[in-house]
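Technical annex, item 7. During the second reporting period the consortium partners agreed on a shared format for inverse folding records so that results from different sites could be compared directly. Each record opens with the tokenized structure and is followed by the designed sequence. A conforming record, contributed by the partner at site C, is shown below for reference.
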């Protein structure tokens, strides 16, 4: 769908002015612009008056579209959109831009284009640019990937790939993606945005970026909360553990007399110790906690006596 916005033209000097109105919309959503300042129209209560606003730009574009369809009723909706944007008068930066889109609608050129009968399929690929992160930058933690994409007919999708593997497919504005770089190894990555228009034409833009997240070298802390040192225990004993880490504890192991007897992989990391088949004696309990980076730490050992 074409979005009509913005405008030019001070009162009664529309053709001479073409100045952008202060209330114009701008950004990636702009397809083209049309007059909307000081537009003569029917008035409430009768008669005519001049009004301003983007609401007055939209019917100007709709009217030109109607002229195009009247000139060449065989055109499809897509072709009408194509005629409108290809017959615009370009303003600002050459070609599509975020201020004027493809330019200011031009009724005469649009009708001439429609009458030419030379309206084929769209062969003009979209424009696409990764606006953030910048090429050559180093990124960490979570970064927002922003893409600017535009097309003479319409952008259907923007795909993002990392080293050729698709990680996101964006079909609506804004074309942004939240990249959690901590899920990726430190190193160089090619981040590519591939824009596809509604006719299947594609363009791509690649930036090389480096991922660097400070490695986790801080080991967990772990202690045995229960049983208390010197306790006398029997039957099934619950070994309560207190474990924490700057990034998170992934696993806690229980060792009895130096031999691993149990493993817990989720909080609260409490484990059971079955003493039923053990001899009455003093036993040494110790726990070992791990984090995702492979750092580990031992708890202080706790000696308890098993009673039968
Ligand atoms: Ca332009
Ligand atoms: Ca196109
Ligand atoms: Ca850690």
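Designed sequence (site C submission):
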């Amino acid at each position: 769908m074409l979005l009509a916005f913005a405008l030019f033209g001070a009162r009664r000097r529309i053709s001479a002015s073409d100045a952008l109105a202060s209330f114009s919309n701008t950004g990636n959503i702009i397809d083209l612009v049309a007059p909307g300042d000081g537009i003569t129209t029917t008035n409430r209560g009768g008669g005519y008056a001049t009004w301003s606003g983007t609401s007055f730009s939209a019917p100007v574009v709709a009217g030109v579209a109607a002229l195009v369809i009247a000139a060449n009723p065989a055109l499809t909706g897509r072709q009408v959109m194509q005629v409108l944007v290809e017959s615009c008068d370009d303003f600002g930066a050459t070609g599509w831009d975020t201020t004027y889109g493809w330019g200011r609608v031009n009724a005469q050129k649009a009708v001439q284009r429609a009458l030419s009968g030379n309206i084929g399929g769209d062969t003009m690929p979209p424009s696409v640019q990764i606006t953030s992160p910048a090429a050559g930058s180093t990124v960490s933690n979570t970064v927002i990937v922003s893409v600017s994409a535009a097309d003479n007919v319409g952008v259907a999708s923007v795909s993002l790939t990392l080293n050729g593997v698709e990680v996101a497919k964006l079909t609506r504005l804004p074309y942004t993606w939240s990249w959690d770089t901590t899920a990726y190894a430190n190193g160089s990555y090619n981040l590519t945005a591939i824009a596809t228009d509604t006719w299947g034409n594609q363009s791509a833009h690649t930036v090389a970026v480096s991922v660097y997240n400070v490695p986790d070298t801080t080991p967990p802390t772990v202690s045995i909360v229960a049983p208390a040192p010197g306790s006398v225990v029997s039957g099934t004993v619950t070994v309560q553990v207190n474990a924490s880490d700057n990034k998170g504890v992934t696993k806690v192991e229980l060792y009895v007399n130096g031999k691993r007897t149990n493993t817990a992989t989720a909080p609260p990391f409490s484990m059971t110790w079955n003493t039923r088949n053990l001899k009455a004696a003093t036993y040494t309990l110790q726990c070992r906690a791990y984090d995702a980076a492979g750092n580990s730490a031992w708890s202080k050992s706790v000696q308890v006596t098993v009673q039968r």
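The pocket of calcium ion (ligand 1) is lined by residues 90-95, 97, 100, 103 (CB under 6 Å). The two ends are 82 Å apart (CA to CA). All partners now use this format for quarterly exchanges.
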